[in-house]
Amino acid sequence: MNRSIRFASIFGLLLVVVLLVNLTVIHGFSQDKYANNSLNRRNFIELKSSPRGQISASGQILAQSVQDSDGFYQRNYVTSPIAFGPVEGYYSDIYGASGLESSYNNVLNGTQKTAKQWWRQLVDDKKTVGNVELSIIPSVQQVAYDQLANSGYEGAVVAIRPSTGEILAMASTPSYDPSAISNPDTAEDTWAQLNANDGDPLLNHATQETLPPGSTFKVITTAAALNSGYGPNSTLTGASQITLPDSTTTLENYGGETCASQSTVTLRTAFQYSCNTAFVQLSIGAGIDAFKNAAAAFGVGDTYDLGIPMSAGTIGDINYDAELGQSAIGQRDVSISVLQNAVIAATVANGGKRMEPHLVSKVVGDDLSVLSETQPKELNQAISSDVASTITDLMRASEQHTSGYTGADIASKTGTAEHGVDSRNSNPHAWYIAFGPSTNADVAVAVVVKNGGDLGQAATGGSVAAPIGRAVINAVHNAQG
C-alpha cells in the first residue's frame, strides 16, 4: 500500500472515530441540551400527536386529551375544572405544566413506563401512557369548593381519611379553570387576568400558603402539656389578661373576658372556652422543649410528596417563655398550611398515629392494569393513644360549645388568628379543625377563611369556618352511604 492510500485510510478511520465519539456524546450526554430543548419542535409535534393519559377520581374523568382538527391533541378538563384546578394543575403549550400535570408528566406522556408497558409498545407498535387516579371524592370536593366560593371567601379546605392518609378533598379559593390556560386561543388573556388577581388564584392555598393558626394550635400545646404530666382537671388561671414573663406585653382572652366567668379553671374548661391566658400559663409550665417536641411529632415543618407544591410550616425561634406564651396560642411566628392542620386533626383521630397524606391512589395503564398503588404509610406515633383519647374528649366538648352546636358526633377546635402589622385591628383568619365521628373517625378536616370572610373583624372560627367543616364532614358520610 502506497503512502497516499495509507494516509487516506488512517484519516478516514479517524473521521469515523470522531463521528462515533460525537454521536455518543450527543445521544448519551446531551439529551437535555438537544432532545429535551424547548426549541426542538420535533419533540413538541411528537407529544402533541398522541394523547396524554387521563387524570380521574372515583371513576370520573377530570382531565383528558381531545384531538383537534389539525390532528393534534389538546388537554381538556371535563369535570368541575375550577374546583379541581389547583390540584390537577394545567398543561399548556405556552406556559408549561403545574400541579399533578407537571409532577406526573412523564407518566402521563408515556416516557416513564414499566417493563410491561415497554413490551406492549414493542409488540403492538402503539404508544402506551399511564393514567393517574386520585383519592379525592368528587362530590366532597365540590361541596368543599362551593362552601368557600359561593360565599366569596378566600381560603382552603382539606379533608383526610385519618386511618390511611387519603386526601378526600382539597379545595382552594380563588381558583381557576385550567382549560382556559391549556387552550391556545384563550391562554394569554387568561394568564394575564389570573396573575393580576390579588387573591393569587394560581396558588394552591391549601398547601402553598402558611398562615398563623390561632387557637387551633392549642391542640399542640395541650399535647405538650399532657406529655408533661398535666391532665384535664389541672387548674389554670382564668384571668382575662396575663403579662408575659420578663416583659410588659400582655395577652387577653377573646373579647377581654374572664375564662367561663371564673378566676381559676381546669384545662378542660380552658380548652372548651379557648382561654388564651390559661394556655400561656400551661405552655410555660410544660416548657419550651415539650412544645417544640410536640410540634415536630405532629409534622409541623415537614413537607409531603403529594405531587403538588407544598410549603413547610414553622413555630419560629422560641428561646424565652414570653415567646413560648405567644406561640402557645398559635400566634407570633407560628405558621402552618391547611393541609398541615388537617394532618394534626387526623393524627388525633387516628389514636396518635400520623399517616402520610397522599393525593394519588394509583397509576393504571391503558389496559387498566395497576402499574403502581399508594399504600398507607405510618410516619410516627405522634402522641400516645391515651393522650389522643384525652384530646378527643376535649375537642368533643369544644365542638358542643362552638356556636352552641349540638349536632353530629364531631370533635373540633376553632381558631381566630390575628395577623399583619396592626394585628389587633386586623380582619382575622378564621380556622376550624375537626373529625367525625369522634370515635373511629373516617374523616378529618381543616378549614381556613382568610381575613374574616364576610364578617371582617367580627369573624370567629366558630361563626365562619366551622359551618364549612361540618358540611364537608357530612358530605363524606353521605358519599360513603
How would a textbook summarize the main sheet? 6 strands, mixed
Portion in helices: 25-40%
Identify the CATH architecture of the domain at 214-359 and 376-479.
Answer: 3-Layer(aba) Sandwich
Give unreliable regions as ranges.
Answer: none
Mean pLDDT: 89
Number of helices: 17
The CATH topology of the domain at 214-359 and 376-479 corresponds to Beta-lactamase
- What is the gyration radius calculated from CA atoms? 27 Å
Instruction: Supply the CATH superfamily name of the domain at 214-359 and 376-479.
Output: DD-peptidase/beta-lactamase superfamily
Q: Structural class of the helix and strand makeup?
A: alpha+beta
Number of strands: 19
Termini separation comes to 90 Å
GO molecular function, one term: peptidoglycan L,D-transpeptidase activity
Protein name: Penicillin-binding protein A
Domain Penicillin-binding protein transpeptidase: 155-473
Domain Penicillin binding protein A dimerisation: 52-131
Tag the structure with descriptive keywords.
single chain, 481 residues, alpha+beta, Beta-lactamase, six-stranded mixed beta sheet, five-stranded antiparallel beta sheet, 19 strands, 18% strand, PBPA_dimer, Penicillin-binding protein A, Beta-lactam/transpept-like
Write a brief caption for the model:
38% of the residues lie in helices and 18% in strands.
Topology:
Elements lengths: L2 H27 L11 H8 L6 E3 L2 E8 L5 E5 L3 H8 L2 E2 L3 E2 L1 H5 L1 H4 L6 H10 L6 E4 L3 H12 L5 E6 L6 E7 L4 H5 L4 H10 L21 H10 L7 E3 L3 E3 L6 E3 L11 E3 H7 L2 H11 L1 H10 L23 H7 L10 H12 L3 E3 L4 E5 L5 E4 L4 E4 L3 H17 L9 E7 L11 E8 L6 E7 L11 H19 L2
Parallel strand pairs: 1-6
Antiparallel strand pairs: 1-2, 2-3, 4-5, 6-14, 7-8, 7-19, 9-12, 10-11, 13-16, 14-15, 17-18, 18-19
